[in-house]
Amino acid sequence: MSETKNFMFLNRRAPYGTIYAWESLEVVLISAAFEQNVSLMFADDGVYELTKGQDTAGIGMKNFSPTYRTLGDYEVRHMYVDKASLEARGLTADDLVQVEWEDWETEESVDNIVEVVDSEKVAELLAESDVVFSF
Amino acid sequence: MSDLHTVNKSPFEKNSLESCLRLSRAGSVILLYEDAVYAALKGTAVENMITSVVGDRKVYVLGPDYKARGLDESRIIDGVEVVDYAGFVDLVDTNDKVQAWV
Question: Are A17 and B9 a contacting pair at CB < 8 A?
Fold first, then answer.
């Protein structure tokens, strides 16, 4: 087996208007299946990907927002949100989906792996990742 | 009569809305759809772009695109009106021409 790396997915695009958000989610799921350490970062318009209550019935597109809530089951352990991006858009953590995580072996669990972090922390997390995938 | 200006890009990512507002005349009609619907939300860093023009331009937001993005209609800037697809068609029909700020 090849080594396990820390993958960071940097999401900076709003959902639906372009394909970036959906494509990122696809690659996240593939990476998790290959047992890499997968974290997600949402910054700029990417924070819009996590708004709760998305309802795409009126635009004839697949609503992929429920998929984010399943990422904990794919052993995605961290989903970070850039605080400055959130605030600039008039949003708070209350506007975002919550994602549960549980380790089936140890039964360790976390109620919500979505974490709002400041710019300094974002920079640190990006710098410490082995690979950053940009969408 | 007036022109309908359509904007479909996020105001945080592109200057489409900014240019539309700068280069359209008073009395123009503006429709925000797709990623431009984010501009209609209260409390954002770009809120004043819309609040500064609702007095002399009529601003609409496409409801299905707004709803798709998980935004609640109670958070739309005062003076901005929500339309559905039929309303979009009416706007195209009742204005002289459509100018798209893609």
Answer: yes
For A18, B46, B53, B68, the CA distances from A57, given in Å and listed in that order, are: 17, 28, 31, 7
Q: Which CATH architecture has domain A6-134?
A: 3-Layer(aba) Sandwich (3.40)
Give the integer Cα–Cα distance in Å for A129 and A127. 6
Q: How many domains does the structure of chain B reveal?
A: 1
Nearest C-alpha neighbor of B35 from the set A77, A51, A32:
A51
The Cα of B83 is separated from the nearest Cα of chain A by a number of Å equal to 12
Q: Which two tokens stand for residue B38?
A: 């984010």
Q: What confidence tens digit (pLDDT) does each residue in A68-121 have?
A: 999 998 889 999 999 999 999 999 999 999 999 988 888 899 999 999 999 999
- Is the CB of residue A4 less than 8 Å from the CB of residue A37? yes
Determine the residue of chain A that is closest to B84 in CA distance: A58
Q: Which two tokens stand for residue A119?
A: 């710019």
Its ipTM equals: 0.88
Contact indicator for B9, B39 with CB cutoff of 8 Å: no
Chain B residues near residue A65 by CB distance under 8 angstroms: 70
Question: Largest Cα–Cα distance in chain B?
Answer: 34
Q: For the segment B56-70, what is each residue's pLDDT rounded down to a tens digit?
A: 999 999 999 999 999
